[in-house]
Amino acid sequence: MSKRLAGLDDVDPRAVPLPPGTEVTTGVDRAVPGTDRVIARGALGRVVAVTPPDAGDDAGDDAGAAWVDVEVVGVGRLRYLRGELTPRKQGLVRYARRRHAAWEALAPCVVVDAVVGSRAWGLADERSDEDRRGVFVLPLAWTTGLVEPPGDLQSADGTRAYWELGKTIRQGLRADPNTLELLFAAAADPTAVRDELGAALVAARDAFVSVEIYGSFGRYALSQLDRLEHNERLAAHRALVLDWLRADPSASLDQCAARLVDAARVVAPTPADALLRARDYLKQLYRSMFDQGVLPTREWRALVDHARAGAGDHAAFEPPRELRPKNAYNLIRLLDLAIRWLAGTEPPSLRVPEALRADLLAIKRGEVPMEDVLARARAMTPALERARAASRLPPAADVARAEAVLRAARHEVARRHVLGAPGPWGADAPPPPVASFGEPEAP
Length: 443
Description:
- This protein has 3 domains: about 25-85; about 100-210 and about 400-430, no CATH class; about 210-395, no CATH class.
- It contains 15 helices and 13 strands.
- The protein has helices spanning about 90-105, 120, 165-175, 175-185, 195-205, 215-235, 240-245, 255-265, 270-290, 300-310, 325-345, 355-365, 370-380, 380-390, 400-420; strands at about 5, 25, 30, 40, 45-50, 65-70, 75-80, 85, 110-115, 130-135, 150-155, 160-165, 435-440.
- The strands form 4 sheets. Strands 7-6-5-2-8 form a 5-stranded antiparallel sheet. A 4-stranded mixed sheet has the order 9-10-12-11. A two-stranded antiparallel ribbon has the order 1-13.
- A hairpin with a 5-residue loop joins strand 11 and strand 12 (about 160-165).
- Helix 6 packs antiparallel against helix 11 (about 325-345), helix 6 runs antiparallel to helix 13 (about 370-380) and helix 8 crosses helix 9.
- The longest helix has 23 residues, at about 215-235.
- The chain is globular.
- Mean pLDDT is about 85; it is low at about 1-10, about 55-65, about 310-320 and about 440-443.
């Protein structure tokens, strides 16, 4: 019989946290505000927001329970109590359970906790969340058993995320943009470091800075630019695709992709590659429409049925995720930061220059046409190449220094464990999960 190692027992799927993005099934009927329509229990949706207990509307006998905003397929956003929702797949329940258990146990082991994202960049507005990212260090007992310890911790609402120390260092050696942002944001915030285990890492932040920034920041941004330009051209043909399907509901995905290759003048090394790119766009189209609650399922047939029904205004659809203003303005921000970092001898501020800030905020608000944004990003590429060619940064990260930080931290954790020192790595260390044979997860 197939068995696997497990660390925790099963729990009630109506009790585990539901982070934004989780697919759920509703357990009660719900009236649609402003209409006579009632959505029967069993509807499918996706979590978009969670309101903490006591912060939402009066829940009567359920006061203290969290409210969950759900984008219900074919309906829009409705509000449910947490106990009225069940994760759609059993695997999601197990994942949420493991993540919640790890968060509860290891949150005291966070050693760096910094504000990142739009608030660190100087681009926050009244709708911006306070995103925090940081580093945690595993107690010794969590590294010596059969159960693989977590490499990440994430809060239920997704606004706080922490990487294990070893994972953070390995990411930093690759000049990962999010990791470098974390380390330099922490250095600028005197409250970000919680323990000397984190202080040593932040102090060594320049060991991770190298010309590799060109690849991790710049080339990554350019690859995303290529993708955005491609999808921008194809998005202009979305209404055309729906018209084709309305006229011929029997058309297959491949047939529409072949027509799209010609209509959108898809450029690719070979005709077969062009067809694949067009197919990918069509898949992105129906997946995006499903995410928006326009389609009941994430499949081609649902798109065909929608077109045949003639529902909705083509122009009213939200663009695919890749073409939303947030992605576009972050692309330009990343290119600007890469250019400034490669060109200088000192790390630049994470805050965008004032001369660029107003433009990025306008892009974020959707006030700048996407084609203008992409053209501006493309115009920045020569400056990126010049900055790399003239950069005085080292060619690669200082691996020896990074490893010394990791070894010193591991030795310090072992010392605190053996001596039973106060704190989460000694006398107050959370017990690790116990290995056991569990039933295999449902497919």
